[in-house]
Specification:
3 helices; four-stranded antiparallel sheet; alpha+beta; 12 strands
């Protein structure tokens, strides 16, 4: 069944969307900056019709700016930016950086509908992308004009001691090619996959 649509598909501002496919279902995480609760999580069965399912973030940090407690102090235009949404071995992940606290945070959940847990990472990874390799080693790609790749420790709490970090390491080249391949494959899957059309079929769709 072919579905046609016109832009915009969603009449709401969902900036910096990161979309992944788990099983036959698509999930999206978006930037919410200074708004709380934040980090919108949406779900779709055909990339056209989207439904809101959760806020992954209650509040970025317990600061006067976030709580609007001090006159003239606020987190306007800052807060959480550019989330990286991933699913790996039964766990959902959202990695993002906050420009007001200059801190990176990792959100995790057993279900995309929540509840979500939050913890800080050692290091600041602006415009980051979380990547799990086939051997379960985790990396974060981050930066703007210069991209860097850092291997994370098994606890995903910070860099791996002695792990690869930098912009010239051969791992950078390999992971860049892998991430490009993953992105291309996801795009082709999105284009060629048949959408689920019945409510009964949708109800049977569960993350692999």
């Amino acid at each position: 069944m072919m579905i046609t649509s016109t832009n915009p598909m969603v009449y709401t501002d969902f900036p910096d969307p990161d979309i992944i496919r788990v099983g036959g279902v698509y999930y999206m995480a978006t930037t919410t900056m200074h708004f709380t609760p934040g980090c919108d999580i949406l779900r779709s069965y055909d990339l056209v019709h989207w439904e809101f399912i959760a806020h992954a973030l209650n509040i970025v940090a317990d600061t006067p700016e976030e709580r609007l407690e001090c006159e003239g102090a606020n987190a306007y235009g800052r807060g959480m930016w550019a989330p990286s949404l991933r699913y790996h071995r039964g766990t959902w992940y959202v990695l993002f950086a906050a420009n007001d606290t200059h801190t990176s945070y990792l959100l995790t959940a057993d279900d995309p509908c929540g509840p979500w847990r939050k913890r800080e990472l050692d290091g600041f990874y602006h415009d980051s992308g979380l990547f799990f390799d086939d051997d379960d080693r985790a990396y974060v790609v981050y930066g703007q004009s210069t991209l860097r790749i850092t291997e994370l420790n098994p606890e995903l709490s910070g860099p791996m001691p002695g792990g690869s970090t930098g912009s010239s390491h051969r791992t950078t080249r390999r992971l860049t090619l892998v991430m490009r391949a993953v992105t291309y494959t996801s795009m082709m899957d999105a284009i060629t996959s048949s959408p689920v059309t019945s409510r009964k079929a949708r109800a049977k769709q569960k993350p692999a």
